[in-house]
Amino acid sequence: MVPNPNPPTEQSLIHLIVNPGVEPDDLGLTVTQIESLVVPALRDHGLDVRVHAVDAPEVLEDLPAAGITLPLTLAWTPTHSQPADIWPKFQDQAWWQQTLQEKGFLTGPGSYWLPVVVTAKGVLYGELIGRDSEGNYQQPIHLSDKMRQPLYYLARHVLNQLGSPWPGCYCLQVGWIDDQVCFERLWPFPIQPALASLGIQSPDLFYAHYRCLAGLPLRDLRINADVTYQVLNP
After folding, report:
1. CA-to-CA distance for 78 and 85, rounded, in angstroms?
2. CA 33/CA 38 separation, integer angstroms
3. Are 139 and 149 in contact (CB under 8 A)?
4. CATH fold label, 13-231
5. What is the pLDDT of residues 190-212, one digit of tens each?
6. For the segment 144-187, what is each residue's pLDDT rounded down to a tens digit?
7. Contact 222, 201 (CB under 8 A)
8. CA 84 – CA 9 distance, rounded (Å)
9. Are 190 and 114 in contact (CB under 8 A)?
10. Distance between CA atoms of residues 68 and 212, nearest Å
11. How far apart are CA 74 and CA 87, in angstroms?
C-alpha cells in the first residue's frame, strides 16, 4: 500500500471535492446529497467540513496544506501529493474490462456494491449493498460463503491491479451471471450506494473513508445489532 503522507493524528478539517454536474440518476453523489446527508454525518464526529466544487479556483490552484482532502468525484485531477499515478485507472473503464477479462474474470453490468476499505494495517470488507424493490439502496445484504469467497477473491485481484492502492473506502460494483460474480467498476471513494451505511454501519463508509485518509486506525466495520439482513437475489 502507498504510505499515507498524513500523520496519524486527528485532523478535524476536511475538504470535500464535489462535482456540481452530477445528475440524481448517476452513481456519483450529488451536491444536495453531500450537503444534506454526508456533511451532517461527518460533523457529528466533530469534523470541520468544507465543500468545494471540483472546478473552484482553490481546487484548481491546490488546496491549503491544512486538513484532509476527500475527493468525491472522478472529475478531480490529483495534485503532486495525491495518487496521480493510479487515479487515471479509475476513469478508464475499458482498461479494467480488458485487464480482468484477460485474467479470466467475468465482466458485465452490476447492481451491487462491496465496500473495500484499505487501511494502514490491511483491507476490510463491508457488508454488501444492493437495492430494494423500490430502487432504494440497502445494506446489509446476506451472502452465502459460496458467493462471498469468489467476491473477495475478485476484490483482492482488483486491488492488486492498482499496485499500491491509496488508503480509503472503495466501492466495488459487481453483479452475478449464472451464479458467478462479474465485475463492472471500481470506485475510489464512497458513492451513492454508500449512503445506505448511514445509521446502519459503524463507522459509516464516509467516516471510514476519512479515517483511512487521515491515517487513523480502523479495526472493523460493524452492522448495528437491530438491523435486519436482506438475502441476495441477483
Report:
1. 9
2. 7
3. no
4. D-amino Acid Aminotransferase; Chain A, domain 1 (3.30.470)
5. 999 999 999 999 999 999 999 99
6. 889 999 999 999 999 998 887 789 999 999 999 988 999 999 99
7. yes
8. 24
9. no
10. 10
11. 8
DSSP annotation of 34 reads I
> What are the b/e assignments for 217-229, b being 16+ CB within 10 Å?
ebeebebeeeeee
> How far is Cα 225 from Cα 218, in angstroms, rounded to an integer?
19
Identity of residue 113: W
39 in Cβ contact with 82 (< 8 Å): no
pLDDT at 8 over 50: no
Q: Which residue has the cell 467475468?
A: 106
Place of cell 491509496: 166
Q: Is 155 exposed, middle or buried (0-12, 13-18, 19+ CB in 10 A)?
A: buried
Residues 11, 232: Cα–Cα separation, whole Å: 38
Gyration radius of the chain over CA positions? 17
Cell of 2: 502507498
What nine digits make up the cell of 3? 504510505
